[in-house]
Design goal:
The chain is α+β, with helices and mostly antiparallel strands. The chain is built from four helices and six strands, in the order βαββαβαββα.
Length: 133
């Protein structure tokens, strides 16, 4: 799975154009976060990545694409902190973090990284009380 991070313009028109273009190509957003800044960015995953690439290509907006791994963590204080520290200590920066689902006992997050294989190795080493199957 891939995550996309798109640099938007300074007004809402860029967000509208992007979401319209994705919908027009049949790509459904599966997770999304608007990242504030100057300019703002939109980080997201979609169900149809090739369709999203075509939509983004037609828009001509700056876009970065990252590998994504899914984490199923205990939904308790500190679980994400432990995973983030483990990744940072291994030199694997998180480019984007999106929570996909959260319930009383479990939180499912997707993290976008430059090196998915290195991230998977780090995650496999997390303790069972942090990482859930």
């Amino acid at each position: 799975m891939k995550a996309f991070v798109v640099t938007l313009g300074k007004d809402q028109d860029a967000l509208l154009a992007l979401t319209d273009a994705l919908a027009g190509k049949g790509a459904n957003l599966t997770s999304v976060s608007l990242l504030p800044g100057d300019p703002p960015r939109l980080g997201f995953t979609v169900d149809l990545e090739d369709a999203a690439r075509r939509a983004l290509g037609r828009l001509g907006v700056p876009v970065a694409e990252y590998e994504v791994i899914e984490l199923s963590l205990a939904n308790t204080p500190g679980s994400l902190a432990l995973a983030a520290h483990a990744l940072a200590d291994a030199g694997v920066p998180i480019q984007l973090l999106l929570t996909v689902r959260a319930s009383r006992g479990r939180a499912t997050d997707v993290i976008a990284v430059d090196d998915a294989e290195a991230a998977r190795l780090v995650v496999r080493g997390l303790s069972e009380d942090v990482l859930l199957d």
